[in-house]
Amino acid sequence: MHTPKLTTPTPWQDRVLAVPEHLNLAMLGGRGSGKTTALALLVLRHCVQYEDRARVLILRATYKSLANLWDELEALFRDAFPGGVNSNRADFVIRCPNGAVVTLGNLSSAKDVAKWQGQEANLLAVDEITNFTTLRHINMLQANLRGPAGVPTRMIVLGNPGGPLHATIARMHVTGRVPWRPYELDDGSRWVYAPSTYLDNPTIDTERYARSIIASSGGDRALAEAWLNNNWSELAGAFFADVFGDHCIIPDSDFRVPGKRINDHGWYSCVALDWGWSAPTAAALAIHPLQPGLIGPGGRVFPKGSWIIIDEVHSARSDDPSLGKGWPPQMVAEEVLAACERWGVRPRGVGDDARGLQNDTLLDQLSRHGLTLVKPQKDRISGWVKVKSLMAAARDGDPDTPGLWISERCRFALETLPLLPRDDVRLEDVDTSANDHFADALRYLVNSPLQIARFGRTNIF
Q1: Residues 360 and 450 in one domain
Q2: 401 shares a domain with 273
Q3: Burial of 254 (0-12, 13-18, 19+ CB in 10 A)
Q4: How many CB atoms lie within 10 A of CB 451?
Q5: Which string of DSSP letters, residue by residue, matches 99-153?
Q6: Rounded to whole angstroms, what are the CA distances from 252 to 67, 287, 411?
Q7: 206-216 and 221-229 helices cross at what angle (nearest 10)?
Q8: Closest listed residue to residue 433, CA positions, set 129, 133, 217, 140
Q9: Which of 237, 272, 299 is the last residue of a domain?
Q10: 137 pLDDT higher than 50
Q11: Among 10, 105, 246, 409, which lies 20 to 30 A Cα-Cα from 354?
Q12: Element (H, E) at 372
């Protein structure tokens, strides 16, 4: 096999390649360390070594993020097989002349799980794992790991500090682990933690790269430190780090669209909204059981007094979720009303106010378009205490203590809540310069008197 100078392994990549194949790999490190290239080299070696028995499946959270990884893999494989490979970018499949097959795919919902279930793989790689919102779908696909005799089955995960799964991945693979020494997870699988930083990559201008990382962190010093130096503990100070996790997330597949009939079966429904113009507007559609024993999403019984966020509406830009699209009040009202109609949620609730363009208030304008909101209780500290207490109750699983759960469909919420930093001075508060808009909507929701938040009664299940 010809290996061009461009892809000659770095010393760190050589060490990764030397880890025995019967051990799973957790390549978790700072940005720019060469993890993706290391994955490409591992995949190529697997395909060359096991030929027509090699089946590789590489997953990322979104379809859009596959493009750059595809370009690197395709270039490497075309160089390694001078006779050419059969590559189909439309399906993200590479077929090697020796019979090996590499498939790339996205895994962002339960529908994607169904798409990949049953596809045999003896090498399963999950790239950018901390960008996923839950491990549930990944765990379901581990059953795909199987192969013929003589071919080892192996799982590889790659990721940087930060992202929705930061705390979960740190607990599993970083905290307390000795680098390069095998360890065992609760499921019996054996792993090696292979840490790295940008200094492990001699192919980049390290000084320039460090400056670009600091700039891309948006002024979040803990995040910049984590990305530069693979410091997972720096982000342990995220505001919700100890209470938010998979226990708060309800799978999208566990929801079904309710009927349109509004009736009284012990549920209240409402909307909580945080307004933004240059920053995103964020609205949470919530239900609230007022009686014990009520059955909610997924056939679960939720404690009386819990809050369940069944959907969201937001105006965040896709290229920068900290910026809003500048929706006017009418558009905000229309989008929220459409979501309420889908779920049978009453278009009433709580929302922060602002002075409008015609010298009337935001809430007045929203009301004229059919969305009736009143001002919430805005005390920050007591609000955060209530939000965190509800999250902790969901974590602890006490059937009699109200908790807070969020649907997996609430992507904006799940992408922003885990990384909200503490305020530098007032540690019991969130840093208000961060992307705290959905968190603020939650705070308004749980901290407002029930007579404000319970306008609508509906049994939506």
Answers
A1: yes
A2: yes
A3: middle
A4: 8
A5: S-EEEEEE--SHHHHHHHTT--BSEEEESSGGGSS-SHHHHHHGGGB---TT---
A6: 26, 16, 11
A7: 150
A8: 217
A9: 237
A10: yes
A11: 409
A12: strand 372-374
Question: Average pLDDT over the chain, rounded to whole?
Answer: 87
Instruction: Out of 175, 202, 237, pick the residue that ends a domain.
Output: 237
Token pair for residue 157?
Answer: 């995960």
232 and 259 assigned to the same domain: no
Assigned token pair, 312 = 């969201």
Number of domains composing the chain? 2
pLDDT at 260 over 80: no
Token digits of residue 43: 């995949």
Mean pLDDT calculated for residue range 71-86: 90
Query: For the domain that residue 50 is a member of, what is the CATH number?
Result: 3.40.50.300
- Would you say residue 256 has pLDDT above 70? no
Residues 78 and 224 in one domain: yes
C-alpha to C-alpha distances, 13 to 142, 330, 433, nearest whole angstrom: 25, 54, 38
Are 171 and 262 in the same domain?
A: no
Question: Which among 311, 301, 252, 261 has a CA at the least distance from the CA of 460?
Answer: 261
Strands 267-274 and 456-457: antiparallel
Question: In a 3-state reduction of DSSP, which class is residue 165?
Answer: coil
The larger pLDDT score, comparing residue 1 to residue 52, is at 52
Residue 374 belongs to domain spanning: 246-457
Tell me the C-alpha distance between 406 and 394, whole Å: 11
Q: What pLDDT, on the 0 to 100 scale, is given for residue 458?
A: 40
* Strand runs labelled E in 234-326: 249-250, 267-274, 282-289, 307-314
The candidate with the shortest Cα–Cα distance to 120, out of 141, 105, 99, is 141
Tokens of residue 47, six digits:
């395909």
Both tokens of 380, joined, read 């920050």
Overall average pLDDT of the 150-179 stretch: 91
Torsion sign, CA atoms 108, 111, 113, 117: negative
User: Residue written as tokens 């993020």?
Assistant: 65
Output the six-digit token pair for 272: 């909580």
Who contacts 291 (Cβ-Cβ below 8 Å, separation ≥6)? 266, 304
Structure token pair of residue 82: 């001078």
Residues 179 and 280 in one domain: no
Residue 156 and residue 257 in one domain: no
